[in-house]
Amino acid sequence: MSLIQVINPNTSLAMTETISAAARAVAAPGTEILAVCPTHGVESIEGHFDEAIAAIGVLEQVKRGKAQGVSGHIIACFGDPGLLAARELASGPVIGIAEAAMHTATLVATRFSIVTTLPRTLVIARHLLQQYGFTHHCAALHAIDLPVLALEDGSGVAQEKVRQRCVQAKREDGSGAIVLGCGGMATLAQDLTKELGMPVIDGVSAAVKMVESLVALGFGTSKHGDLDYPLEKPLSGAFQHLN
Fold this sequence. Notes:
Blueprint: E1 2-7, H1 13-26, E2 31-36, H2 48-67, E3 72-75, H3 83-89, E4 94-96, H4 97-108, E5 112-116, H5 121-132, E6 138-143, H6 157-172, E7 177-180, H7 189-196, E8 200-202, H8 203-216
Helix pairs in contact: 1-8, 2-3, 4-8
């Protein structure tokens, strides 16, 4: 029995439910999904400022999940906010959905495209491509030019724009797979994969299977080197609860 904590780093309960549904859809028998989000922070993450605030909420949730005995943690925002800091706190594996989706894409295609929300977040995606070593695998990046929360407004407009951008990417980019660049797109991947006849990869689903695999192999986050637990030192003010 594995308990996987899926952290939506923003405060949107609707998006947390979307992410939870995608995670549960692929979880193996015997895997339980604990989907959570912070009670304070930002309602959507669409820039460096938002990510900095959201990272604290991620760390708080990792600490709570660890106390609850979870087997591993998933950071369900395509910016992977607070990923390395979370790995320092955690004993089990911690996977960010951008990292998971990009890794998965390289296993099924030589080149992939990314479809995300606002144009400003394309810069963050490029930084992650460089950080993870996948720049030369990425054929193109596309933005639907709608905010993250448009995916939860019930109109279906954002979902249709995602579909159109994926069709465009298949037609124009010469890529073999498409990565969905937002946790709020998580439930779209299976239908788009069938429609386009090519892998359309949701990082939430990919991360669930990665955590399951790492747990089955008996691997947690290495504590030899820079991901060792944080050095013990007093934290003051608003951060005391992270001691």
